[in-house]
Specification:
This protein is α+β, with helices and mostly antiparallel strands. It is built from 14 helices and eleven strands. It has helices at about 10-45, 60-85, 90, 95-100, 105-140, 165-170, 215-220, 245-250, 305-320, 330-375, 375-385, 390-425, 435-460, 465-470, and strands spanning about 150-155, 175-180, 195-200, 200-210, 225, 240-245, 260, 265-270, 285-290, 295-300, 330. The strands form two sheets. Strands 3, 4, 5, 6, 7, 8 and 9 form a seven-stranded mixed β-sheet that branches. Strand 3 and strand 4 form a beta hairpin. The radius of gyration is 34 Å and the shape is elongated. The model has no long low-confidence stretch (mean pLDDT about 80).
């Protein structure tokens, strides 16, 4: 009608572009508001997983504005030039736009966008499966020590204090198995390293632990060779216990007990490797020295079913002997905090996967609705020729399943590369298995089938009289 009334093609193109920019701008405003809300909720639920926002970084607003211009123009330029050149007479006679325009030329673009969306969502589904599989693997890892029922009291003890007397009083409490004064425990976020020269051009950095004779028993460290420090031996800063990684690092062969490295340190024992900081790094060399000059904390090993009563008794003894507040935590909280950070990342991946699936479903549903409208005449002819509802549904859904299959085929190598890259960040990682891809395929195809089910049934139940009436 506008062309009949004399509107020029340039005016129509301008109208289409402005409409596209306006819609994109409104979507950006709504999206920006929802993103700020989503980031706030996500950070409150999972911790500080996303630190950037438009409110914190106004420069992002400029990028959003440039994105609106780019998306608006790209989305509007094709229909602007295409629709402005449409023939007027067929449309004025009542024909549909799809019958006048050759929309088949845009089929590759439409299908390509759906394939891209589902390839991304399938990649995220595969990634989420292996992320959570890795988390389950981390839960089962042997840490190399017993972190259960170990009470940690952070306190700076003076060198002139009678620590043995305090330890003896604690051991008299029912449920207290052992106690150790030390300056470091696994995963306590402390950073104590010690470098040792093995040669003119070779230096080794150890994770250093200052311990007492009861440290190994309190934590349940496994002694592989030699022995631990003895309460009867005098404190000597040259006697050390190494872990397996430390033994390999110094290159001691055969029986390492009694051997000297770095021209100073003498090995009296070797313990099994135990995790020091986190799950991602390889267990590095660790060195333990007998030093009770100024311990920073007390570890108390409990062995009781009535945990609360034992803790109350310990608190009473502590306050009676020291006259100070009793502040404590459990050793397993150290690794719980480390694991919590890993779980936050996994939960973030899961949330983004759900969002990607939702967006993919919207794209697939839109394409299904568009395709159903364009193929009404074809399905009407098929039904007149004897095709049943199931035949129509199969014909309609088959084309979409091919797109989903193509998307999944693209997603497999991409996800293999991405997941392997992520898993390589862990010292102990799982291997990729077929089950993860099978489950991801089932989920992807199930979601796709559910998305197009409505249009499939609706298309299959079309009345050929209505679809062929205007032909």
């Amino acid at each position: 009608l506008r062309k009949v009334l004399g509107t020029r093609k340039a005016n129509l193109i301008t109208q289409f572009l402005l409409e596209s920019l306006l819609i994109t701008f409104l979507a950006a405003v709504i999206g920006a508001g929802l993103s700020e809300l989503f980031i706030t909720i996500l950070n409150q639920s999972l911790g500080e997983v996303i630190s950037m926002s438009i409110l914190a970084y106004p420069i992002l607003g400029l990028y959003v504005f440039l994105g609106v211009l780019a998306v608006g123009v790209l989305a509007g330029v094709y229909p602007a030039f295409y629709l402005s050149s449409v023939k007027m007479i067929p449309l004025l006679k009542g024909m549909k736009l799809g019958q006048v325009l050759n929309l088949g030329s845009a089929k590759i673009l439409r299908n390509g966008l759906v394939v891209l969306q589902f390839a991304i969502s399938s990649t995220l589904i595969i990634g989420a499966y292996f992320v959570y599989s890795q988390l389950q693997h981390l839960r089962k890892i042997d840490l190399g020590f017993d972190e259960e029922q170990v009470l940690v009291v952070s306190h700076s003890f003076r060198s002139d204090e009678n620590l043995q007397a305090l330890r003896n009083e604690l051991l008299n409490i029912p449920g207290v198995k052992d106690a150790s004064f030390n300056d470091r425990l696994p995963a306590d976020q402390s950073d104590n390293t010690m470098s040792t020269m093995l040669g003119p051009e070779k230096t080794i950095a150890f994770n250093a632990f200052q311990v007492d004779p009861f440290y190994a028993e309190t934590l349940g460290l496994k002694i592989l060779q030699g022995s631990w420090f003895s309460p009867t031996q005098p404190t000597s800063d040259s006697l050390v216990v190494l872990n397996e990684s430390g033994l390999r690092a110094v290159g001691l062969e055969g029986d390492p007990i009694g051997q000297v490295f770095g021209n100073y340190w003498r090995v009296i024992g070797v313990v099994e490797n135990f995790f020091v900081d986190n799950y991602r790094e390889e267990i590095g060399p660790a060195i333990m020295t007998y030093d009770q000059s100024t311990p920073d904390q007390l570890a108390i090993k409990l062995n009781t079913k009535n945990l609360q009563a034992t803790v109350v008794a310990i608190q009473s003894t502590w306050e009676e002997l020291r006259g100070e507040p009793f502040e404590y935590k459990y050793l397993d909280q150290n690794f719980a905090e480390v694991f919590s950070k890993e779980k936050q990342n996994a939960d973030a991946v899961l949330i983004f996967t759900i969002l990607a699936i939702f967006i993919s479903c919207l794209g697939l549903f839109g394409l299904a609705a568009f395709t159903a409208d364009q193929r009404q005449h074809e399905f009407g002819v098929r039904k007149v020729l004897g095709a049943g509802i199931s035949d129509i549904i199969k014909s309609f859904g088959y084309d979409f399943m091919k797109l989903i299959l193509l998307a999944f085929i693209i997603a497999v190598p991409v996800s293999v590369y991405a997941v392997n890259l992520w898993l390589d960040g862990y010292a102990q990682r799982i291997e990729l298995g077929v089950l993860g891809f099978v489950m991801a395929a089932i989920i992807s195809f199930g979601i796709a089938l559910f998305t197009i089910a409505f249009q499939s049934v609706k298309t299959g139940r079309l009345n050929p009289v209505e679809t062929l009436r205007n032909e």
